[in-house]
Design a protein that fits this description.
The protein is mainly β. It is built from ten helices and 45 strands.
């Protein structure tokens, strides 16, 4: 809402207690608000005011003042804040107020004896008077940001009663000693750019714990080597974030004893036995140079301090070589989300060599019993999540989502190790009989250059019964997703979506046993692959004259693109059924026959390959059709009924620069009664529309043109 100025009649609202002008364009003249002596709540949040006039100081009954997110607000008239004796809540976050420059000062807040809630942003720590933090001990709720570039949250959230963010480019000298008292009450602490500070918390507290701290976030500490100086407790800490601390050696600075006493400084673990996080739920480490997070030989009581951890994210820790021992992994019983990204030196996630004797006796090892999501990205030396140990199966009983990207050395999810030669060897299979995922629903795999196969038969019992989504791209050595074996018992009945792309060595996508049993599949895309057939032939020994039927009853979206080596859908006698197809993309599919008519198909020899689609059965149900220009002549032939294309709303023709096709006759569009989108690329077309004097069914053609909303013509 926009006001050139507030109306003078507003003064008549003598009993008005609440006035909210949020998001309004008020201009510079809001002095008239000072006449509303009964106001208790005044909110100007996200308005365009540039200064708060002295008249606002007349609102002596005011209990709440909100000027948060007034991005243009730079000046508060001197004495305004100290003139509001009943003020209890003051919100000034997200503003550009210049404290100490012909304006109100932060010392004015000392006069507000009833103030219990404060949100304020202080770009320069020097603007805070020497006793500023000491006077804020009375606050029950606060958000205080000191230093530039802290981003103020747009929506007010009160996850924590006390939030303190400090970015001190000149060090700690500009803060008064009251900060230590305020810190005792703080639940949410952010530290950034603590110039010259080697031990982050040493100058902020004299205590052995911060009793109420729930979230600790330390970032951009380019001089920081340690977080604390001695044994320390964080009795309520739930979230810990350490970002961009390139000189960080360890969390605790005291001389190491016990398991870590013999380690050189550059091999010290980030966390040792001196640190206690009994309630830690979230841990995020980014751009720190430690070689290990935990020591492999910590006591079981030390590991148990992390057992409430639910989210773990480790990102761009380029020196990290060791993550979990088996003992540590076994303690993380509440972990639900795990991401590890860009840790270039890491070769395995779990080190299995010291597995306990009692675990050795079991046939199945269950790890992370509540893990839902696992992401492994940019781990350029990773060879596996862990090694197989003897004959055991490792089970991830609750995992639903798995992403593995850009791990070029990956040998397999579980890689095989040779104890005799002390070397690793692998079949380069992502999932073999050493790992079980009874709850897995989604798998994404990309840029895994060594893998030759995704699934190898046989699986452990109940391994992938809930799998819904498979996405496989840029696996340059991949030959098989599934491969027929002597016991061809693959079963993926719950699959809904399969996308496979840029796998140049891939021979086929499905064995026949899988393709014949996909009752839920609705989305299939295969593009830029070297497949010679979509479905491989059934195993040896079956009657070669038997006709195989592929019933894809729920398939709605099929995309086959740039499969230049493809010869057929299936190399034997077969039939296909696609009753629910709505969208088809087919182009550059090699020798595979895509379209055929009922007459041609009926007259084919029994041993010849049928087309993928009989146009009379498939096209009438389609809503979107995208084809290569090579297929235009086939489907635009005069022998086909005119009503085949009535349901199609989007039609796209893709040509090929290497072989221009000029068979496209624009009169073919007469058959598209409901066409809304027309896209033609790299095709020779003499004209797109009829010109005067043309013959043909002009009325029908005009009707087609009237429905088109989008036309796209591209030359390349």
């Amino acid at each position: 809402m926009q006001f050139s100025s507030l109306p003078s009649s507003i003064c008549q609202l003598t009993s008005l207690s609440t006035l909210c002008l949020d998001y309004c364009k008020l201009g510079d003249n809001i002095t008239i608000i000072g006449e509303l002596k009964s106001l208790e709540i005044l909110s100007l949040s996200e308005s365009d005011i540039r200064f708060l006039p002295k008249e606002i100081g007349q609102l002596v009954m005011l209990k709440l003042l909100d000027v948060s997110h007034c991005a243009k607000l730079k000046t508060i008239s001197d004495g305004v804040l100290s003139s509001l004796p009943r003020l209890e809540e003051l919100y000034m976050g997200g503003t550009s107020i210049h404290w100490r420059q012909r304006s109100a000062t932060l010392a004015d807040l000392h006069a507000l004896s009833r103030l219990s809630t404060l949100e304020v942003q202080i770009p320069d720590a020097k603007a805070a008077p020497h006793d500023f933090f000491h006077e804020l001990q009375k606050l029950k709720r606060y958000k205080i940001f000191i230093g530039e570039e802290w981003e103020w949250e747009r929506f007010r959230k009160y996850q924590y009663s006390g939030t303190l963010k400090l970015r001190l480019t000149t060090g700690m000298d500009d803060l008064d000693l009251g900060i230590k008292k305020l810190l005792k009450k703080t639940e949410d602490l952010h530290l950034g750019e603590l110039k010259g500070v080697k031990i982050a918390l040493q100058e902020l507290t004299d205590e052995k714990s911060i009793p109420y701290l729930k979230n600790l976030h330390i970032q951009n500490g380019f001089d920081t080597e340690y977080i604390i100086n001695d044994e320390y407790e964080f009795p309520q800490l739930q979230s810990l974030t350490l970002h961009d601390l390139p000189k960080l050696i360890s969390f605790c600075a005291q001389h190491e004893t016990g398991a870590t006493s013999s380690l050189p400084q550059h091999e010290l673990p980030l966390f040792n036995e001196k640190i206690s996080f009994p309630y830690l739920e979230n841990l995020w480490l980014k751009s720190i140079n430690v070689t290990r997070v935990w020591h492999n030989q910590l006591s079981s009581s030390s590991f148990s301090t992390y057992q409430k951890l639910t989210t773990l994210k480790i990102e761009v820790c380029g020196s990290l070589k060791h993550l979990f021992s088996f003992s540590m992994a076994k303690c993380l019983v509440h972990l639900t989300n795990f991401e590890i990204i860009g840790c270039y030196c890491l070769r395995e996630i779990i080190f299995m060599a010291e597995i306990e004797q009692e675990a050795q006796a079991t046939m199945t090892l269950s790890l992370f019993p509540r893990l839902k999501s696992l992401e492994l990205k940019g781990l350029t030396h990773l060879i596996g999540f862990c090694s197989d140990y003897q004959t055991q199966v490792i089970e991830f009983s609750t995992l639903k989502s798995l992403r593995i990207y850009n791990c070029p050395e990956l040998e397999g999810f579980i890689y095989r190790s040779s104890m005799k030669a002390n070397q690793c060897f692998s079949n380069h299979v992502l999932f073999d009989n050493k790992v079980s995922f009874p709850s897995l629903e989604r798998v994404w795999a990309r840029d895994l250059e060594k893998l030759k196969m995704i699934w190898e038969n046989p699986f452990p019992p109940n391994s992938f019964p809930k799998l819904r989504v498979i996405s496989i791209t840029k696996l340059s050595s991949l030959k098989y997703i599934w491969k027929n074996g002597p016991k061809d018992i693959f079963s993926f009945k719950n699959l809904h979506q399969i996308h496979v792309g840029f796998c140049k060595s891939l021979k086929n996508v499905f064995p026949a046993s899988v393709a014949r049993d996909l009752p839920q599949l609705s989305d299939l895309a295969i593009f830029n692959c070297g497949v010679e057939e979509i479905v491989s032939k059934v195993e040896e020994g079956l009657d070669s004259e038997t006709t195989v039927t592929f019933e894809l009853d729920k398939l709605s979206y099929l995309r086959l693109w740039w499969l230049q080596e493809c010869k057929c859908f299936y190399p034997g006698r077969h039939t296909t059924k696609w009753p629910m197809l709505k969208e088809v993309t087919a182009a550059e599919c090699g020798e595979m026959k895509i379209f055929g008519t009922q007459l041609i198909t009926h007259n084919q020899q029994l041993d010849s390959q049928p087309p993928l689609f009989v146009v009379e059965k498939v096209i009438p149900k389609l809503q979107r059709l995208q084809i290569g220009a090579d297929y235009i002549a086939m489907i635009s032939g005069g022998q086909l009924p005119n009503n085949l294309f009535h349901q199609i709303k989007a039609f796209r023709v893709e040509g090929n620069c290497a072989k221009l096709v000029n068979d496209f006759q624009i009169s073919f569009l007469e058959r598209f009664y409901n066409l809304e989108e027309l896209c033609i690329s790299v095709c020779e077309i003499k004209e797109l529309f009829y010109t005067e004097g043309d013959t043909g069914n002009k009325g029908t053609y005009d009707r087609t043109l009237s429905t088109i909303r989008k036309i796209e013509l591209t030359a390349s």
